[in-house]
Amino acid sequence: MADKLRVGILGFGTVGTGVVKGLTKNAELIAFRTGMTITITRIAVSNINRKREIEVNPAIITTDASQVTDADDIDLVVELIGGTDLAKDYVLAALNNGKSVVTANKSLIAKHGEELFQAAKKSDADLYYEASVAGGIPIIKGLREGFAGNHIECIYGILNGTCNYILTRMENEGVDFEPVLKEAQALGYAEADPELDVEGWDAAHKTCILGSLAYGAWYDMDEVHVEGISTLDQQDVKNAANLGYKIKLLGIIKHDSDQVQMRVHPTLLPQDKMLAKVDGVNNSVCVTGDFVGDAMFYGQGAGMEATASSVISDIVDVALNWKHKVNNRLPAFVEHTHYQKNLLPMSEIVCRYYIRLALADKPGTLGIVTSIFGKYDISLETVLQTASDSTNSVPVIIITHQAKEANIRAALKEIEESPVSDAKPIMIRIEDM
Length: 433
Ligand code: HSE
Known about the structure:
Layout: E1 4-10, H1 14-25, H2 27-34, E2 37-44, E3 61-62, H3 66-69, E4 76-79, H4 86-96, E5 100-103, H5 106-123, E6 127-128, H6 139-146, E7 152-158, H7 161-173, H8 177-186, H9 195-198, H10 201-215, E8 225-226, H11 234-242, E9 245-256, E10 259-270, E11 283-289, E12 293-299, H12 304-324, E13 350-360, H13 365-375, E14 380-385, E15 393-400, E16 403-404, H14 405-417, E17 426-430
Parallel strand pairs: 1-2, 1-4, 2-3, 4-5, 5-6, 8-10, 10-17
Antiparallel strand pairs: 7-9, 7-11, 9-10, 11-12, 13-15, 13-16, 13-17, 14-15
Helix pairs in contact: 1-12, 4-5, 5-10, 7-8, 13-14
Bound molecules: L-homoserine.
């Protein structure tokens, strides 16, 4: 039936509830826009007795996922259970049965994208994943369609709302990391395992998806450099503010000197940059293309309605493909060889650095430190020594000019091992954008 799309949903949690609500509330509008009727044929759940926010016909609820993935009366499977084990089996089963799939599952796409897209290609099925990155922000469509005629020079993303919420509170209220994390969890921002947020993994999954889409190859998640915010000290947030910067956890994707970089780490951004002004639980993505120039997306990176909005936009794409019998007119992922597949090793990146040292308060100390930086070809832009807060040790804040990461690491190791250093040096990268 070309005017009807029959949908089966795996998972009836927060996002599943949002999708059912959205498809119901705006059914007439979606039908006008697509010329299609979208019906939910079945929903597979793990706990049939759980109390739900919305009522659906009990006859469409099942605990058997195969009644969605293998059913003849379902054209599209929407995977909303999360995780990479069962979700992968179900998505592969659906694709192998020739059904199109929509998923919000970032870790599944980041880790198994290559295999899943091969299965989709083999079955000539669509596999869409808009909700996997930045919740309600249409960044996948933006890259895939809006910037299809551009070489993407770089992408900077605030991709984890929990971390951005914590950093904003640390900056505005001078509070420490641990108590704010607890509040973020209580507000429902954090993943079930908050390490995924605060150690940077959630942002890394999203970064890997965006970078793979921008450069047409499934990059290996294990090659993406990942640092989180759990060890960030309030002192560095204050120092950054005094020097005119904000600290943000960024996903950074660049194509420099013929190689692709992908990394996630706390980053000092000049306070006047638009991305530095993105506060609280929101997400934002800045894209620079060789023709479009700079473009910026901003909005809710999580939450029931925002995430469901992206899932529904993918459902609408599948419905239109179904109507026109044109699977893959807008392929969700196109593999090509225009760019190199290997990522630039982290030791090779070049940027400016913020460094905090704890040094012995005695004659000659700064001379020893600056000569070590000089030995590794590192030029210093700013050196600030503040009053000693203990009897022996003084904090020294340094901003470097552009330097190679390998040289910075070697210099900091030598400083740490020298007799003038009282603690492990702190290093945070700076991006001028
Ligand atoms: N825990 C994630 C965040 C949810 O904080 O952004 C959306 O992926």
